[in-house]
Amino acid sequence: MYKIGDKIVYPMHGAGIIEAIEEREIFDEINTYYIMQIVSEGLQILIPVDKVDEIGVRTIVGKDDIYDMLKSMHAPMDDMEKNWNRRYRDHLEHLKTGDIFEVAKVVKNLILLDRKKGLSTGEKKMLNSARNFLVSEMVLIEKRDKDEIVGIINGAVCQQENE
């Protein structure tokens, strides 16, 4: 069980801090919820305590993992589906894991694809969402502002193009 002040990651939304643990009645059912503030978005999320494992909530990674994740973004673009709809679904599966390395792979591939031929509207939204996911966790770990973190992420992808 997490406690107030813990830094956690909610798949598909990002990292934040547990601000409270409360019992609430929702749909005529009383449950205990973590009240989580997503740091990069200013969004507050209710997470049912009894569903955290099922949802895939995890604690934030360490600085070494951030370094390794950024390093992984130096790799060339992965082989991807040509059809944007299938590619979107494949990327969505990676995002649902909440794994920082899987999300970084999606960000890297979409940034490189955008530079190569452009993205569909759905893929642009997915890129922004995935990048914000990484930013939210890095803001908590690196203690830097959002714009600086975005620059670091974009820079990690840029480096591989020039190597």
String of helices and strands: EEEEHEHHHHH
Tally of separate domains: 2
Which percent band covers the strand fraction? 15-25%
CATH architecture assignment of the largest domain: Up-down Bundle
Shape: globular
Helix content estimate: 40-55%
Characterise the protein shown here.
The model has no long low-confidence stretch (mean pLDDT 87). The protein starts with 6 loop residues before the first strand and ends with a helix. Helix 2 runs parallel beside helix 4 and helix 4 (100-117) crosses helix 5. The longest helix has 22 residues, at 121-142. It is globular. The protein has 2 domains: 7-59, Thrombin, subunit H, CATH 2.40.10; 63-162, Methane Monooxygenase Hydroxylase, Chain G, domain 1 (Up-down Bundle), CATH 1.20.58. Strand 1 and strand 2 form a beta hairpin. With 163 residues, it is an alpha+beta fold. The protein has helices at 52-55, 63-72, 84-96, 100-117, 121-142, 146-162, and strands at 7-10, 14-26, 29-38, 43-48, 58-59. The chain has a 5-stranded antiparallel beta sheet with strand order 4-3-2-1-5.
